[in-house]
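Async update (no meeting this week)

Hi team, since we skipped the sync, here's where things stand on the single-chain job. The sequence we agreed to prioritize is pasted below, unchanged from the tracker. I ran it this morning and attached the output directly underneath so nobody has to dig for it. Comments welcome in thread, and please keep replies under the output.
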Amino acid sequence: MKAFFSIILALAVAVGAAEAQEPSGTAAAFRILPQPKLPQVVLYDQYNNASPNHTRSSTFTDFPDASSDLADDFVVPGGQTWNVQSIDADGGYFKGPGPATDWNVFIYTDSSTLPGTQIFSALNQTVSVVGTTFTVNLPVPAVLTAGTYWIEIQANMTFGTQGEWDWTDRTMQANSGAAFRNPGGDVGCGTDWIRKIFCVESMDPDQVYRLNGTIGAPIELQARAQTQGTNNRVQLRWRPADGGSMNVLRDSVVIGTTADDGKANDNLGTQTGTFTYQVCETDTGDCSNEVTVQVP
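Output:
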């Protein structure tokens, strides 16, 4: 039992200890990123002013109370709609060789300069790694209108065999400083979001990352359930409809591809329940709002 608590204690202080060493299995040199492939553009860029320090952003199957969330904020300018399609984050593995099992990406609203309501999640995603750059391509773009948001990239790991993944700190602050959360309470900073520098040893205020995607007018989707006899269907209508083709998603899964002519039907047969719909352009990846429909 004493050995078990010693391991827990070592893990609880790993954020501070990791900040003084190079990550294992990754290159130490800081990388200048290439431009994303068209039609994607760089939406937001904090991939600069890297610190030698790092902060944990990992979940642990074997020590869940030490799992930690780390998020940084960004602003979508007035009059714009962003379709966030990928995140590049600088970081590395500590206390073990990695690699992570898979990855999570979350986006939150802003609540008094800390993360608020979670509005987007992509769970158990794959990652591509070049040097110290970890890139997660989102399965469905996160559609964001003007405002302040927080983004989190998090590695899912088993500490005993893989170690932890830490996100590179940034010496310059943009907007509000990064926020840290340890829901299990093992780190000793409470269980809710707190300014990162009030919890970890590093005094570097932000994280190193970049967001990529497209900028465009929002696609407005409407959906309506219809029943004829025992057959149910959902009628979808969207605008603008500017040609090309459109993926139709039900509950975040592509169920078909149709012409971008502003209309489609999902024939459910005898299925009933609550369904969430979205349509996404196949060429740009731009997506509509999500609409939830109750089918009797």
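Quick observations from my side:
Residues 14-215 form one domain.
The CA atoms of residues 51 and 259 lie 48 Å apart.
Reply here if anything looks off.
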